[in-house]
Design the sequence.
């Protein structure tokens, strides 16, 4: 079964994205700037990789041996894991890090050192999420049936009344779910939907690669520390799980307030598989920015607080989003296209968790019915 097509409305202000691309292209040409990684990005790459791997080296070589020292190392690894995920592998797997595809492939493969599988990520994120943002039945980022309700177009269950309370826990175990189960589920599902072949994989080759990657990942990052660190095995295991919980929470709390908030829209294709908006207009209706004035925050989260710019120009390295955001916002205003943004990260989180609560209790549905 191939992936059903979704048709966007090509008649909905097509001149908007045409003009926007022209202006963004002019920005890079006039300033003689590459769209790819600059020195700042290369420094960040070295920093985040070191932040993730150095604590592991310190633990397994016996430099850090105390319980709280080891816990501190796992904590740093959790932060480094987030940094690699949000910045380095994210840009690389979009082809935005370098114009050299081999550099992108190598840095994109870092995702496997975090316990996930890079090919599945490309399908879920690049193919499904970026193409069909907030489209129920197509965007897997909002497809959490039986666990959470992220869209008013999804069925509501009684357990969802409590989702605003258990969401942070589920966010925290997100990457644990990745390496234990999700990658296997996705390989099977993507095979059935004919999504593996465009990535150059058969079902057998993808499954074999997932199994191989899981084995060496767990051997290096869990079994080896348990064997060589002079602490009880369960304390090492708790540190490993803490690393994943920190990373999962960071990742979810950056991505969710960019799409699942009060200001964004959610869609279901009509009987013909059509969406009412032009693709570029759709991205602005389903995406939001936050904390755009915070330079350090933007640095740490890989520019993904400029989520609008990222969705419109995923092949541009994130270090440039801050500089093109004014162009995007001005062009959107000229063509009467919404440009959602929150002043602070806290404001964005408040909107996200408020929406989770209303989707869970059904009050959001009642508000829609009376609108």
Sequence:
């Amino acid at each position: 079964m191939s992936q059903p097509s979704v048709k966007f409305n090509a008649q909905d202000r097509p001149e908007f994205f045409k003009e926007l691309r022209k202006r963004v292209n002019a920005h890079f040409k006039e300033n003689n700037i590459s769209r790819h990684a600059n020195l700042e990005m290369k420094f960040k790459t070295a920093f985040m990789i070191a932040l993730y791997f150095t604590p592991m080296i310190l633990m397994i070589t016996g430099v850090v041996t105390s319980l709280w020292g080891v816990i501190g190392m796992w904590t740093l690894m959790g932060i480094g894991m987030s940094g690699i995920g949000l910045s380095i592998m994210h840009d690389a797997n979009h082809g935005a890090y370098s114009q050299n595809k081999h550099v992108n492939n190598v840095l994109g493969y870092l995702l496997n050192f975090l316990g996930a599988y890079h090919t599945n990520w490309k399908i879920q994120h690049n193919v499904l999420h970026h193409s069909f943002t907030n489209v129920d039945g197509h965007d897997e980022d909002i497809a959490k049936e039986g666990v959470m309700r992220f869209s008013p177009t999804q069925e509501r269950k009684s357990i969802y009344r409590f989702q605003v309370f258990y969401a942070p826990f589920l966010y925290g175990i997100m990457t644990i779910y990745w390496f234990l189960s999700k990658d296997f589920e996705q390989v099977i599902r993507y095979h059935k939907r004919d999504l593996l072949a465009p990535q150059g994989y058969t079902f057998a080759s993808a499954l074999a690669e997932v199994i191989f990657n899981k084995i060496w990942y767990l051997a290096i990052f869990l079994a080896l520390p348990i064997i060589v660190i002079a602490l009880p095995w369960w304390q090492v295991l708790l540190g490993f799980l803490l690393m994943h919980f920190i990373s999962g929470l960071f990742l979810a709390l950056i991505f969710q307030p960019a799409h699942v908030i009060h200001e964004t829209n959610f869609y279901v294709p009509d009987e013909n598989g059509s969406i009412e908006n032009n693709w570029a207009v759709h991205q602005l209706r389903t995406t939001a920015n936050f904390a755009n004035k915070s330079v350090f925050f933007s640095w740490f989260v890989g520019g993904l607080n400029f989520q609008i710019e990222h969705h419109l120009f995923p092949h541009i390295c994130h270090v440039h989003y801050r500089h093109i955001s004014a162009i995007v916002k001005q062009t959107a205003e000229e063509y009467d296209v919404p440009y959602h943004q929150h002043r602070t990260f806290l404001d964005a989180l408040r909107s996200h968790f408020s929406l989770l609560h209303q989707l869970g209790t059904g009050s959001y549905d009642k508000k829609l019915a009376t609108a």
About this structure: The two ends are 38 Å apart (CA to CA). The chain has a mean pLDDT of 95. The longest strand covers residues 288-290.
